[in-house]
Amino acid sequence: MCAHNPPCPTAMAPDREAARPVAHRPEQGWSLLCNGVRVFEDTGELLPDGHIVAPHRSLALTVGSAA
């Protein structure tokens, strides 16, 4: 799917989120990457084969700082 040089990581690669966005729908809370992965604003993902990756936002970003 990717025509970039160097090519973006595949949808099954551990670094799949590094692929370039080809569509962005902030009003719906998702972006489509050139490898076919749909990334949601809560950091969840939908892979092209239909598998779901649960949100993996770090605790520091969700809880905030206690200072």
Strand arrangement within the widest β-sheet reads 1-2-3-4-5
Low-confidence stretches: none
Order of helices and strands: EEEEEH
Main sheet properties: 5 strands, antiparallel
Radius of gyration: 13 Å
Q: Which class best fits the helix and strand makeup?
A: mainly beta
Number of helices: 1
Helix content: under 10%
SS elements, strand count: 5
Mean pLDDT: 87
Q: What is the percentage of strand-forming residues?
A: 15-25%
Principal-axis shape equals globular
Q: In angstroms, what separates the terminal alpha carbons?
A: 45 Å
Describe the structure in brief.
With 67 residues, this protein is mostly beta strands. The protein has one helix and five strands.
3D architecture notes:
The chain is globular, with a radius of gyration of 13 Å. It has one helix at residues 59-63, and strands at residues 21-25, 30-33, 38-40, 45-46, 52-53. The chain starts with 20 loop residues before the first strand and ends with a helix. A hairpin with a 5-residue loop joins β4 (45-46) and β5. A 5-stranded antiparallel sheet has the order 1-2-3-4-5, with no helix packed on it. With 67 residues, it is mostly beta strands. The chain has 1 helix and 5 strands; from the N terminus they run βββββα. The mean pLDDT is 87. Helices cover 7% and strands 24% of the residues.
